[in-house]
């Protein structure tokens, strides 16, 4: 289902990517700039778009469910169609120029993280949408969630780090970041760049973890579970829901 | 064909269905009537599996439908308000619905033809008038040759000619030993069509009688009057 919003989204991403590479002399700076931009934009856009899509499709879903279609199948198809549209958009808008200008591991990792991140936030959006039938409540909830993941979480983390600065808390900080898919992605990509060297002692712990094959593997698995867990909640709630 | 056994459904504090039990055989056309909030929509939704019950069971062709989805192969549903995605056109809608039902190869295009839906093929669903959407809904409900037709306010929004087209299709359909259940507030449209009347009020079954029986009891010939009279009678 072609939707002009997605085309605009793709175009935006494409332009932004081009823009960054054009502005920054060093490729790596451009990648980091892109990282920050997309970490901010992609979750929000995935959340808002997906949740409005769900509410728009709600009535049609009822018609579909009057056919011999299982509930799980219908909501899963909804998720998949959203995922496919976003993946295409991200791959073309972000991936294509990235790989053209900077065909190194950093770019691929960035692409992978952003793709996974969109999968995560579409899942979260569906969960929020299934939770409440009220459109405004649903959108409000997803915006709140965005603020939490992108802003609040880091705020809390910083507070904690500041207050406990004298204690050897690095490991705990590491584990804490697992609770936020955005931070997880950010660190994964940052660690591949040279900025990691500038981060001092805490940076060393992160670097230790994230540059090993094992560490990266675990991080990807964690992101995947960030997809699976909200999805499962969403599916189960949808199965039992009165429509 | 359908049996409802001791259905109970509460939305918060509101009792939508209270101990409703009903058994409807096939080969009939049944009117499901009652004031707003009487439980008609909840009854239909619980039958379609859109809403879960607090207690009770529903049987279709002697098998329980709770938590099942397969039985809906045999059901054609026409909702009160057409619920279509905005960006699809009519042709895409029909193609999509057919792709959902790969089990059916033999379609009933009768209403589709009689309503001249082919002319609307390229039109976007959100560009259709209310009446046109109703025609599309009706044609879809009959497309897969169901054994049970569930129509929720089918005639509201249809012009007189289309109304007659639908009615004659339904009469034709009914004579083939299937079951039709129609909810409607416009009882005059149901004259000459229905055999039985189910009347719900406040989530409870008030009466379930055939037209003949109602006619005898009330000495009236029009459905509206029959029902009004009957409601005055014994509880």
Q: How would you portray this structure in words?
A:
The complex is a heterodimer of chains A (about 240) and B (about 240). Chain A has about 240 residues and is mostly helical. Chain A has one domain (about 5-240). Helix content of chain A is about 85%, strand content about 0%. In chain A, helix 2 (about 25-65) packs antiparallel against helix 3. The longest helix of chain A is centred in the first third of the chain and has 39 residues, at about 25-65. Chain A is globular, with a radius of gyration of 19 Å. Chain A starts with a helix and ends with a helix. The model of chain A has no long low-confidence stretch (mean pLDDT about 80). By secondary structure, chain B is α/β, with parallel strands linked by helices. Chain B has one domain: P-loop containing nucleotide triphosphate hydrolases (Rossmann fold). In chain B, about 30% of the residues lie in helices and about 25% in strands. Chain B has a six-stranded mixed β-sheet, with helices on both faces. In chain B, strands 2-1-4-5 form a four-stranded antiparallel β-sheet, covered by helices on one side. The longest helix of chain B has 15 residues, at about 160-175. Chain B is globular and about 55 Å long. The two termini of chain B are about 25 Å apart. The chains are: A mainly alpha (about 240), B alpha/beta (about 240).
Supply database-style keywords:
heterodimer, A: 243 residues, mainly alpha, B: 235 residues, alpha/beta, Rossmann fold, six-stranded mixed beta sheet, four-stranded antiparallel beta sheet, 32% helix, 26% strand
């Amino acid at each position: 289902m072609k939707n002009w919003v997605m085309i605009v989204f793709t175009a935006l991403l494409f332009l932004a990517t081009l823009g960054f590479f054009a502005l920054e002399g060093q490729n790596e700076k451009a990648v980091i700039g892109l990282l920050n931009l997309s970490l901010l934009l992609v979750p929000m856009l995935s959340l808002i778009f997906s949740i409005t899509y769900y509410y728009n499709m709600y009535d049609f879903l009822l018609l579909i469910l009057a056919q011999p279609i299982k509930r799980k199948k219908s909501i899963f198809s909804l998720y998949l169609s959203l995922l496919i549209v976003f993946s295409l958009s991200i791959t073309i808008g972000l991936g294509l120029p990235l790989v053209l200008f900077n065909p190194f591991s950093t770019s691929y990792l960035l692409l992978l993280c952003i793709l996974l991140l969109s999968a995560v936030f579409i899942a979260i959006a569906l969960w929020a949408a299934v939770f409440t039938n009220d459109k405004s409540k649903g959108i409000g909830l997803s915006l709140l969630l965005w603020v939490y993941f992108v802003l609040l979480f880091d705020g809390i983390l910083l507070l904690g780090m500041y207050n406990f600065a004298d204690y050897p808390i690095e490991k705990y900080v590491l584990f804490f970041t697992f609770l936020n898919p955005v931070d997880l992605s950010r660190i994964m990509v940052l660690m591949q760049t040279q900025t990691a060297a500038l981060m001092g002692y805490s940076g060393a712990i992160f670097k230790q973890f994230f540059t090993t094959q094992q560490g990266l593997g675990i991080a990807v698995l964690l992101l995947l579970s960030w997809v699976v867990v909200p999805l499962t909640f969403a599916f189960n709630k949808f199965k039992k829901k009165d429509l | 064909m359908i049996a409802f056994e001791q259905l109970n459904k509460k939305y918060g504090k509101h009792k939508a269905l209270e101990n409703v039990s009903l058994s409807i055989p096939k080969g009939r056309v049944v009117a499901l009537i009652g004031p707003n909030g009487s439980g008609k929509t909840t009854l239909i939704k619980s039958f379609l599996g859109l809403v879960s019950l607090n207690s009770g069971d529903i049987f279709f062709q002697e098998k329980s439908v709770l938590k099942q989805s397969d039985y809906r192969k045999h059901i054609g549903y026409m909702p009160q308000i057409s619920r279509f995605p905005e960006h699809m056109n009519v042709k895409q809608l029909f193609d999509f619905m057919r792709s959902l039902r790969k089990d059916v190869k033999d379609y009933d295009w009768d209403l589709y033809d009689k309503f001249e839906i082919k002319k609307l093929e390229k039109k976007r669903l959100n560009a259709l008038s209310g009446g046109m959407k109703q025609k599309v809904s009706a044609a879809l409900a009959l497309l897969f040759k169901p054994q049970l037709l569930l129509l929720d306010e089918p005639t509201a929004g249809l012009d007189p000619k289309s109304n007659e087209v639908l009615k004659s299709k339904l009469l034709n359909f009914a004579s083939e030993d299937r079951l039709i259940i129609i909810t409607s507030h416009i009882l005059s449209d149901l004259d000459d069509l229905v055999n039985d009347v189910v009347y719900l009020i406040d989530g409870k079954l008030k009466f379930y009688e055939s037209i003949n029986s109602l006619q005898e009891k009330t000495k009236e010939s029009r459905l509206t009057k029959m029902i009004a009279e009957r409601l005055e009678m014994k509880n």
